[in-house]
Queue: 2 jobs
Job 1
Amino acid sequence: MTQPSLFGAAPSVRALLTGACLPYGNSAHHDIYNALAQDWPALLTGDEAALEASVGGSVQMAALLLQAWMDADAAMAAKGDRKAARTFQTQMYTFWTALGALLDERPGAELFADEGFGFEDPLDALRDRTTLLLSMLGESTALRLLQPMLWHYARLSRPAQARSDELFYAAIGCEMLQGDYGVRRLSESDLVDCVGQWREHGRSVLTTVLGQPAVKPPAPGPIQRLQEARRRVPVDGPSLRVLASVEHLPGSAKDGDGRQGGSTASTARGEYAPMAGRDLPLVVVPDLVRVRHRLVCEFPDAAGIIDAILRPLAGRRFAWLSPLLLRGAPGSGKSRLARRLGEELGLAVTVYSCAGVADSSFIGTSRQWSTGRACVPLQAIKRADAASVLIVLDELPRAGTRRDNGRLVDGVLALTERETARAFHDPYVECAVDLSAVSYVATANSTDCLDPALLSRFRVFDMPLPTLASLPVLAQGIAEELRRDRGLGAVWLPNLTPEELDMVAEHWRGGSVRVLQALVECALDGRQTGPAN
């Protein structure tokens, strides 16, 4: 929706269908509240007699309007509570159904007279408004009625009326797409701009068929570009602006220029211009029951750790893990669990091997050097084109401790503090970047040599060694991974047979997964050479 409306005023249904914005932050309950107050002022004064008189003396209609008014008022008082918003959607559907039943009882002659003289009954307008809002919330019954409603308003429009063509674009677009639309939510709202998508499609179709080129808007100035950048929202779900701008750097690339997730030049400005000024998507928390089931099947001995890690994600807007460290013996599977956590949560995973790292390049290096680069988390965000990613700090205690060129642990210390990460000054892009949605999982054989200040930033979990009881599950997981690596299906590389499992169990009684992996691979490959080998 593009046309701004007067602050607080409830735009007409026709204006909403042609692109007017909802006041008060695209809120359905605010819009219903304002429309009721605008057309029935008696609700504000509490004068029930005047309210009944304004609806033709209908006690039922007056009671229905009063209930809708109180429901909208309660939703506004909840101030963004998600449960209250869902409750109001249910209440709005009940109101819409009851309102339609009462209006359909009117004599047909009365309806034709109103339409013939161009009189718009505010009750009809209220029903149409509620139909539109419920459609934008995904209510299927309302969506089926929205298409004929669009044609009704298009037929009633006059050529002299402003934006009459937008009504026909919307109606034709809806007809061509058969009512389908993408999930493109309005800013800070659960409402989906379905009519806007139909308008755009209808305009595109008519322009192509009639051979009329679309009017190209004038090139926006710097202030308009900044305003447009602030208005940008992701197609769906929560988002975060990681990098506000790169226009302070030398070069000519503009914020948002270039392919998303790619680069336009070898300079810092050109490289990060595609993500500058954009709201990058945050990965929504997936079905945690499914995630837990898959992880526990792969790591049956670590079920308690998996539960402790996933539990805080319940109810979060997006997937983010507070820094955690998996401590365990070599071969216990801690690095693989760290990686699989990110994969199952839908996060792009970057495994950063800390062993032998003797500088602080993890937090970036200045563009004044020929080898200048951004910090590792910002590079991961750029590759994923998403604000939430996972960095696995593999074998963190094995990083170098000399201070000649800086220390890795000092950089990790800064980035694992969320307030610092929210405005981290990257030396490559020379400005603050918001890395607060980046998750960190570290692994270590031992934490004895780890800086206590850094250790205090992590939740530490002791990774148990796998046991013999977990052999069938672990062997199946190893076989599946081998199939993926070799590009084979289960027909060509089936799981170990019971006899093969018994043979592996003779040599592995629990312990390192690496040893088990070698044994399983040997058993599977041995099928090709025969029992004599």
Note: Residues 1-7, 109-118 have pLDDT under 50 and may be disordered.
Job 2
Amino acid sequence: MKPNMQPNMLSTWDTCVTPLTLTHTQPNTYNKPEKPCQTQSTVMKNLQTPALLPILALTNVIVKIIASVSIHPMLTGPDMAYLRTRVVFHCIAPNSSMPVSYELMQNNSVLIATRTNLQADQPASFFLKVAATTEGLYHCRATSGGSAGVSNRIKLTVVTPASDTRLTSDPSPPVVYQGSCIILSCVVTEGSHLSYAWLFNRKEVAPSNSFFFNLTGNKLVIKQVTPEHAGNYSCIAWSRVQDANRFSGSTEVQVTVKVYISKPEIAFSITKEGDGYRGNVTCWSSRGSPPINFSLSIDDKEVGAFIATEFPAAWFSVAMVPGLDMGEARCQVKTEMQELMSDPVTLEVVPVGGDVKVEVGYLYRADSTVAATRLSCRVRGTFPYISWLFNDSVLPSETHLDSSFQPVLPYYVFTHHRRTLVLTTLGPEESGYYSCRVRDSYDRSGPWVESEAVLVQVPDRIFQFMPGGTSSPETVPKVFITTTELITAEVITIAFCCFLLLMLVVGAACVYKIFDHEQAVARINMTNSDALPLPTLSSPLEGNQADVSSTQCDVQHQNQVVEVTL
């Protein structure tokens, strides 16, 4: 049965197919089998169409996805470049079918250039001349065989090298006084992305040296200028792109630091000119930066002025007559910041005269031996010249030479403008008669006034001062002083004891007043509490007032305690 059925089925199918073909060309032939064949064809078409649509759609999606991810271009190039230089970007789409078309885009919208590459795995190069408008965000777009891809993005920054660098100061010119502030700025005509370096006396200023300098951006700030900050300053503006550095330096600017002048001092001297005399008044300050305007006033009348440009001192010549009061002189100094006056001095020269005498004092060591002898020449006169005599021979004021031409230091020294003679040793050779003679220093031909000679030798009697009345010299160290020094020490001791006693009395009085005040307040509180009993309840307002009152009392009490302590 089976072999017989198969040919029938095939013939039936063929018979059905044949009329289908004939039916299209000859619709009126074979009418009987037309309906069964048309019905079967329609059913087959309806069954195949819905099954193929999802497959076709999925295939289309897959093809599009494959086409969209098949190209992955990469862009390489610099991220920084100097102005007016050339840069190159390279774009490559590996594993892409040739040819590949490349487009370089700026800021997502501006087309810079187009390249077509016909060789596999070869990048497309884009050369650009850097201008100010070149800065921006770059990417490339590659197209191959109907597929396209977008590369990574590179931000290009245009760096302008520094030019025409100069240094400015505030204040200008850079002349400041000690303790003030100065700001130095490094300014360029053009430049971007700059860093700054500072030089002080041609040595680099380290950023860590913040004690002397404060570096902020293109500024160097010195908040409190000292004389050590004076010198030459310069700056360098520089930038770096990759491994290339560009520098631009300024010229040096000298910063001058001035010192405030101190209170002026005044002194005068006198010289003999022929038969007359001239006075020389000196005005000076111990510190101060020139230029300084000096002026001299006598009895509030200006008699001279001078501008000191090197040293803070000035000299004025005035008329002078010995024995006459020429007036009260004062010096005035003036700068753009200060104006000061000196203390007054009376321009009066007292000639040498009157009695001249010598006072002798001995200085002792702890072992009761003489350490030195001090002789003082008491004389009346403004400008005396004193000469000392030993056994009627003048003592030279300089070292002398012995027979071997070796300098020998004398056994004496002069102090206080030769008013005092100190004998460093006192033996038989140094013992003898000493005297002083005096004349006016401004008149070499003037007369001498001589004192009486006094005998100086190792004293037989010494003044021993022992504290506390101790009678045992072995247990308590001895202190030996002269009669004049003993009187001075006693006066100082008595004055100190009186001052200490006065302070104790004042302190006791203050403490007594404090305790007396506290007792009075306590009695008043007790009296008020007996007369007006406190209520058992109080409002919040009353409580606050009580707190405020107690606080004020505490403050008053603290003020009293502090006042007593001071």
Note: Residues 234 and 252 are 5 Å apart (CA to CA).
